[in-house]
């Protein structure tokens, strides 16, 4: 890369650290660190939710699918999230917010100990934390791949550089730093995406390339589904993403919890949903057009990076690279904050009695130490990502398949319709989903559709079925569900300007 590109990337890293240090002054309590004290405006929570939901995997693994298969990657990879978050704006966003405002919950798993029991909480905490280690490791490896193609930086050093910068600001500033850097990253990424789109359209003959390109691509590239990414995969992904992006991916639940009230929590979810449906089309258009501009490349995963280094002048390459960094750093920092919340609020008090009586300063220290340990561990695993199935293998086959069994008790446990499903249903559905995945993937070497759909469908069937066949109705369960089901006046909540809006 040119010196101007390195200046651009370095300036981006410095900006992220400065935001993190500035955010440090706003973090005085554990609640500030994990949920921004419930003071985050809806637009910031929505943009942060959006930015925290995807990473450099988009520019590596998804770009590779766009190169070989076309628009199908948008439908199961992005539109499914937009639909899922839209569903969550109605079903889950307000309930997450009430968990914080009414029950004082700071961790997404904190309510599970009372809703089910401590063993259920711990099972989900440990298995979810382990899964996120591999998920984030895949994100580090993806951004290291980009840096390697752009500048020839060795993979290990790419992981160390991006991981260390992220570690500084997310450890110092907590959720406020995550959200504010998410916003800065969104702006940088937007400029970079528009620049890339403009350059690609110029190569295609102008703005008309937006509609003429489709006639020049192979006809199969225009199909929403393929023999591998079938209609079943698409439908299952909508179900998986509805659970994953509304709390199953713990960091995203924190955005709903951080909003001042239920009205703004829902507004933030709707903003994120719209962004997921629209903005990826801007970012992914160059990926769809790549087969025409750089045909016959040996590794499709490098398509976006090759176009950037080939078509953009010095300075703009660094801008696009900073935009790619922004996605991974946004997701990882928010994930680290959520995992730290789970470790500090849910796991440590069970393992260590002293943690149950931490002062605010001790709790903050524990939160920051656990963040450091978690991020360093993900960086270590990232160096072995290729041996674990590569980026797409981890993200699609591991995370998408295993998120369901973890999410089902966590999310459905909030809803009145499933109040009869207790700890037995939660644990059996969690274990049954994991066993179903092991049988499908390792026992039968099943197709992608079967591997992704089996765990979540088994978990759903067990959780719902056991609730009806062997109900475990408890007073504490009813109290929690009724508390988070609606606002105090039963019919309305107050927006920030004091107007009454539907609950």
Automatic annotation (TrEMBL):
A GO cellular-component term linked to this record: plasma membrane
Q: Which UniProt keywords apply?
A: Cell membrane, Ion transport, Membrane, Sodium, Sodium transport, Transmembrane, Transmembrane helix, Transport
| Membrane-traversing stretches | 6-22, 42-67, 73-93, 157-176, 183-201, 274-294, 306-325, 363-382, 388-413, 425-444, 450-470
Q: Where in the cell is it found?
A: Cell membrane
Query: Principal localization?
Result: membrane
The reply on keyword Glycoprotein is no
Q: How does the record say this protein sits in the membrane?
A: Multi-pass membrane protein
Gene3D superfamilies, sorted? Sodium/glucose cotransporter (1.20.1730.10)
Q: Which residues form a coiled coil?
A: none
GO molecular function per UniProt: symporter activity
Q: Which family does it belong to?
A: Belongs to the sodium:solute symporter (SSF) (TC 2.A.21) family.
The protein depicted here goes by the name Na+:solute symporter
> What is the species of this protein?
Amycolatopsis coloradensis
């Amino acid at each position: 890369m040119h010196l101007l590109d390195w200046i651009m990337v370095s300036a981006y890293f410095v900006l992220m650290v400065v935001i993190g240090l500035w955010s440090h002054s706003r973090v005085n309590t554990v609640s500030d660190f994990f949920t921004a004290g419930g003071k985050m405006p809806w637009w910031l929570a929505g943009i942060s939710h959006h930015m925290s939901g995807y990473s450099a995997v988009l520019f590596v693994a998804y770009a590779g699918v766009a190169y070989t298969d076309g628009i199908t990657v948008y439908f199961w990879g992005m539109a499914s999230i937009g639909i899922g978050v839209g569903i969550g704006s109605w079903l889950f966003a307000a309930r997450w917010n009430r968990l914080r405002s009414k029950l004082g919950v700071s961790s997404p798993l904190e309510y599970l100990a009372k809703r089910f029991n401590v063993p259920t909480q711990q099972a989900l905490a440990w298995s979810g934390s382990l899964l996120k280690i591999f998920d984030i490791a895949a994100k580090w490896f993806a951004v290291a791949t980009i840096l390697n193609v752009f500048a020839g930086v060795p993979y290990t050093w790419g992981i160390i550089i991006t991981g260390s910068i992220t570690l500084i600001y997310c450890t110092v500033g907590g959720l406020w730093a995550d959200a504010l850097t998410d916003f800065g990253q969104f702006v940088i990424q937007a400029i970079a995406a528009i620049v890339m789109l403009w350059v690609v359209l110029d190569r295609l003959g102008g703005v008309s390339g937006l509609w003429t390109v489709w006639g020049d691509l192979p006809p199969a590239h225009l199909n929403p589904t393929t023999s591998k990414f079938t209609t079943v995969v698409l439908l299952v992904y909508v179900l998986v993403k509805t659970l994953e992006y509304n709390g199953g991916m713990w960091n995203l639940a924190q955005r709903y919890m951080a909003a001042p009230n239920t009205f703004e929590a829902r507004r933030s979810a709707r903003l994120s949903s719209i962004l997921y449906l629209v903005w990826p089309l801007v970012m992914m258009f160059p990926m769809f057009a790549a087969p025409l501009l750089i045909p016959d490349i040996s590794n499709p995963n490098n398509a976006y990076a090759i176009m950037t280094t080939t078509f953009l002048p010095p300075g703009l390459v660094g801008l696009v690279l900073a935009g790619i960094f922004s996605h991974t750093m946004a997701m990882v920092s928010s994930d680290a904050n959520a995992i730290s919340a789970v470790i500090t609020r849910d796991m440590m008090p069970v393992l260590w009695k002293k943690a149950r009586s931490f002062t605010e300063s001790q709790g903050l220290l524990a939160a920051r130490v656990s963040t450091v340990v978690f991020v360093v561990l993900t960086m270590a695993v990232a160096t072995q990502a290729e041996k674990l199935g590569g980026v797409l293998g981890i993200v699609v086959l591991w995370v998408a398949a295993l998120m369901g069994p973890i999410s089902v008790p966590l999310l459905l446990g909030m809803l009145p319709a499933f109040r009869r499903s207790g700890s037995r249903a939660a644990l059996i559905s969690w274990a049954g989903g994991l066993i179903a995945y092991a049988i499908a993937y390792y026992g039968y070497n099943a197709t992608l559709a079967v591997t992704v759909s089996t765990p979540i469908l088994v978990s759903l069937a067990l959780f719902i079925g056991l609730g009806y066949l062997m109900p475990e109705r408890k007073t504490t369960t009813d109290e929690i569900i009724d508390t988070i089901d609606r606002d105090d006046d039963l019919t309305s909540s107050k927006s920030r300007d004091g107007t009454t809006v539907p609950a």
